[in-house]
Amino acid sequence: MKEKTTFYVLTAPVGQLCGNGQLRETIRERRNRKGEDVPFWYLSEELLSKFEIPGNKLEAVVAEEKTAINWLQLRFGGEILTHNFDRERLKNEAYDLPPAANTKDISTS
Description:
The chain is of the alpha+beta class.
C-alpha cells in the first residue's frame, strides 16, 4: 500500500471557488513562485468523488500548508477539513488548473 499524507482541504459548493477565475490565477501564481511540484491542487466535483471526499456538488482545494487553506477560506468561504491522500496520485490526477471563468460580453452596441 502506498504511503498517504494528511493534507488540508477547503471544500465549497461548485463554482464558489473557481467561478470567477481567481482560484485559477492563484494556483498558477503559486506554481510559478514555488515550483511545479508545490503541494497545491484543485479537485473538481468528479475528483472529490474519486478521492472519496464526502459531499455533493462540491469542489475543493488541497494543500500541505494550513495557512494557504486558511487564506483561501477567508477569500472564498467554504469548509476546511483534513484528508489522507497519496501525494503521487494527487500529482497525477489533480494537476490541472480549475476551469477558466466564463467571459461576459459587456460591450455596448
